[in-house]
Specification:
6-stranded mixed sheet; alpha/beta; 333 residues; 6-stranded parallel sheet; 44% helix; 14 helices
């Protein structure tokens, strides 16, 4: 069985320093804290009951608030959930998953109890009704997503505006002059979900900057809706040669629909996406990958730092990386 002394030896610190890193009762440097937690992860150390008691009144439970709203793509949501749960276990924490529509009152009920030590919130809206509570002295909180005014909060996410821009810039560099965004389901925009709104902002800004003809089309998450949007695009934009898709559920049905309508991808129509890396690889689609593992892991790390009383950045924006695959090519003259 791995002991605290084993962790201390690997990290090059004293056993008491390992205890402080676990309990947060005394400040330690960021470099030392990371060495301790790296050693805990590498050795698979699990504190026994006495060591857990060092945390005082802590429950060693994190709440992950993921309201299951209409228009959400559950396979992608679960990638984030798994990354949070996996990272939390490295810190000997469990995760309480809250899937109800938890407004300010619901969050307060959780925060005012000893059930959880801290909270991670997903599906953030631009004008999220939970913000007043989160700006008050409650349990430490991290938001996966950025509201319109993130001041006074701790937020992390992919830079979705830059992701939208990267897709359009790629198409513009290939000579495409008419592009369209096939976006999230309509209800996602009605809620003003932050990541979806920022993709639209980035797409539109990049298209305007490059002087491209552009249009934005929300799309329900069904093959039938994908077919209808494909037909609408070709009817309304006959010069269309480039499409950006930010809707994982319709990416493959949309490509199939374009092919059934007589368009070759990428010979006649280039398609880029913002989606999980495994889906992009499977379909061989040029894409900005969703860094669910990196986001979930860093969200947990931020919470651990806050629980230890260490300063953390208010904003952590991950830069997008676009991988060029077989679905995009230079526009035919």
């Amino acid at each position: 069985m791995v002991k605290i002394t084993d962790v201390a030896r690997l990290a090059g610190v004293s056993p008491s320093t390992v205890s402080y890193a676990l309990s947060g009762k005394r400040p330690i440097s960021e470099q030392t804290r990371r060495r301790v937690h790296d050693a805990i992860r590498d050795l698979g150390y699990r504190p026994h009951a006495g060591a857990r008691a060092l945390a005082g009144s802590r429950s060693n439970v994190l709440a992950l608030v993921v309201p299951l709203r209409a228009g959400m793509h559950l396979p992608v949501v679960m990638q984030f959930v798994v990354s949070v749960v996996t990272a939390a276990r490295h810190y000997d924490h469990d995760v309480l998953l809250l899937t109800q529509e938890e407004g300010e009152d619901g969050l307060r009920r959780v925060a005012d109890t000893s059930l959880v030590d801290a909270l991670i919130l997903m599906d953030v809206q631009l004008h999220d009704p939970r913000l007043p509570l989160l700006r008050s002295p409650v349990r430490p909180t991290v938001m996966i997503g950025f509201p319109s005014s993130p001041q006074g909060l701790t937020c992390i996410d992919l830079d979705f505006r830059a992701a939208g821009e990267a897709c359009v810039d790629h198409l513009a560099e290939l000579g495409h002059r008419a592009v369209a965004l096939v976006g999230s389901p309509p209800e996602v925009y009605v809620r003003q979900t932050a990541f979806a709104q920022r993709v639209v902002q980035g797409f539109t800004a990049a298209a305007d900057r490059a002087g491209l003809q552009s249009a934005v089309h929300p799309c329900a998450a069904t093959p039938g809706a994908a077919r209808r949007v494909a037909e609408q695009l070709l009817r309304e934009q006959p010069a269309l040669t480039g499409v950006v898709v930010h809707n994982e559920a319709v990416l493959e049905p949309l490509i199939d629909a374009f092919r059934e309508l007589g368009l070759r991808v990428p010979g006649d129509l280039s398609v880029a996406a913002i989606c999980p890396a495994d889906l992009a690889e499977h379909l061989q689609v040029t894409a900005v990958a969703l860094p669910s593992g990196q986001v979930g892991t860093r969200a947990v790390e931020l919470l651990m730092e806050k629980l230890a009383g260490e300063p953390v950045p208010e904003s952590t924006l991950l830069r997008p990386t676009l991988t060029w695959r077989a679905s995009t090519a230079a526009r035919n003259a």
